[in-house]
Amino acid sequence: MNEKHAKAFRAKVRAMAPADMQKELLELRREQFNLRMTRATGQEVKPNQFTKVRRDIARLKTVQGQQKAPQQKAKGK
Predict the structure, then answer these.
(1) For a surface tag, which of 31, 42, 57, 65 has the fewest beta carbons within 10 Å of its beta carbon?
(2) pLDDT tens digit string along 8-40?
(3) Residue 32 in contact with residue 53, Cβ under 8 Å?
(4) Residue 42 pLDDT more than 90?
(5) Is 42 left (phi over 0), alpha (psi -120 to 50) or beta?
(6) pLDDT number for residue 31
(7) Terminus-to-terminus CA distance in the chain, angstroms?
(8) Which residue range forms the structural domain that includes residue 17?
(9) Is residue 77 scored above 70 in pLDDT?
(10) What is the CATH number of the domain that holds 54?
(11) For residues 42 and 71, what is the distance between their CA atoms, to the nearest angstrom?
């Protein structure tokens, strides 16, 4: 199930415009913060949600870096 989620998320992110990626990153960071606050107040939180959100953030930032790399090479020439 995780592999399906990862592939679907990567495909979704690669199709996004850079501004949309920033919005998605902000939403994921908010979700991560909300999960931490929920856990801190003693409420039940599924531990796998932390991992899922953290990895989604990493996937998103990886795609952002991959898209910026060719642009930076072009500027350097």
Answers:
(1) 42
(2) 888 888 899 999 999 999 999 999 999 999 999
(3) yes
(4) yes
(5) left
(6) 97
(7) 43
(8) 2-76
(9) no
(10) 1.10.287.310
(11) 46
